[in-house]
Amino acid sequence: MAGKLILCRHGESEWNLENRFTGWADVDLSPKGEQEAKDAGLTLKHEQLSFDLAYTSVLKRATRTLWIMLEEMSLTWIPVTNAWELNERHYGALQGLNKSQVAAEYGEEQVQIWRRSYDTPPPPLNNDDERHPRFEIRYASVSDLPASESLKDTLLRVKPYWQTKIIPSLLGNQDVLIVAHGNSLRAMVKMIENISDKAIVDFNIPTGIPLAYEFNENLKPIKQGFIGDPETIKQAAQAVANQGLA
């Protein structure tokens, strides 16, 4: 059998709390998000899960969630790899705007297309927009930076990293923890479970709730599911789905 995989979306961020499009903006955790990270770590500890290594993005809401989780599990010593490829989907010109206000202006249907359609990106950032990632030193070595992304675009950048870095770890029988973002994780789930372009639109990943996978030797999932109280998970997923409503 291959190693176990736990995916976890970062805890609630300050902009999640304010219902704003976040994307690649480097927003910190809210107090609730810090607690969600602690709870996620305690949940995994209660399940007696341990890990050989961890992956996360280069955005602080994910990295801090991982740090807090590892601290709760007494696993701060394991190797951690930060990768920009695991960043959230880039929301382009919507980044920083309130989702409900954008829905009121452009209509809920259009916002849902921008938020959740598989292959329709939001309006892109202009190249001279100060929000463009080309102005950040952390991306200085990245040659093809996005100014906006659909989920399909996000999957196309996550997929090579998944194939070249994460899959070899799992096939090497290492247990892996990945703390990232709603859309970079949805991209992974789509690949792992072979979910259709249409069905992935309705798959919601709540903040701070671990999603566990066990695989056979060919990396086909034999067991999967969120860890925690089913009703709490259901309500949290529905809250994610409702974010684009006016």
Give descriptors for this structure:
246 residues, alpha/beta, 6-stranded mixed sheet, 9 helices, globular
Helical percentage:
40-55%
Tell me the radius of gyration.
17 Å
Low-confidence stretches: none
Class by SSE composition: alpha/beta
Shape: globular
Measured distance between first and last alpha carbons = 47 Å
Number of strands: 6
Please state roughly what percent of the residues sit in beta strands, choosing from under 5%, 5-15%, 15-25%, 25-35%, 35-45% or over 45%.
5-15%
Order of strands side by side in the largest beta sheet? 3-2-4-1-5-6
Largest sheet, in brief, is:
6 strands, mixed
Tally of helical segments: 9
> Secondary-structure element sequence?
EHHEHEHHHEHHEEH
Topology:
Elements: E1 5-9, H1 14-17, H2 31-46, E2 53-56, H3 60-72, E3 80-82, H4 99-106, H5 108-116, H6 151-171, E4 176-180, H7 182-193, H8 197-200, E5 211-215, E6 221-226, H9 230-241
Parallel strand pairs: 1-4, 2-3, 2-4
Antiparallel strand pairs: 1-5, 5-6
Helix pairs in contact: 2-3, 4-5, 6-7
